[in-house]
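Supplementary Text 2. Reproducibility record for the structural model of the 221-residue chain.

All settings were left at their defaults, and a single model was retained for analysis rather than an ensemble. We include the record here because the model underlies the residue-level annotations in Supplementary Table 4.
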Amino acid sequence: MQRIAALVKKEFKQIRRDRAMLAIIFIMPVVQLILLGYVISSEVRNIALAVVDQDRSAATRQVIARIDHSGYFNIHRVDRYLSLLQEIDQNRATVGLVLPHGLDKNSQQGRETMVQILLDGQDSNTGIIALGYLSAILQDYIRERFATAAGAAIQPPVLTAETQYWFNADLDYSDYMVPGIAALLLTIVTSLLSAMGLVREREIGTLEQLLVTPIKKHELL
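Retained model, structure tokens:
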């Protein structure tokens, strides 16, 4: 232990004299942690969404308003279905949403209504994420519509699935990434410092002195 303590003392002295090493130890990990943990995000926002509202009812206007307020989509409306297809073909829209005729009436009477979602498969990851966003928004709207229909003959489904998120209820990306990045940076920086320490010994010509000292390889590492 005395040999290792002497080496540790020597390393601290050399690190204090080397400004580049101090920057690698203290500044670089902090910058990487801020950039990777708080700036870079896996969330997909500002997705171009083309909407065809064929029903033009209060229900469809509420659905469009809810999608717009989610903050994930940039909505622009088109009048015809063919125009929506052109928007996707010409890369002006990533997602297309068709709200069909009779949506409001069918939902009030408890009849099934099909809503069409078109996805641009060139970027499959964005398409899958956008589909999840839209599905969640539509499901929330349907649940609230059932819940607020007081005295109506329509009854909500008997079995419902309730999703709960533990430990990160708001699904905050930084809460998920920062601890993992911190552990990764600690591993990388310590390995980097060990390698740079041996290289520095070779550069300043003291590696031969270490070879003749009564210290073993594992103690040096």
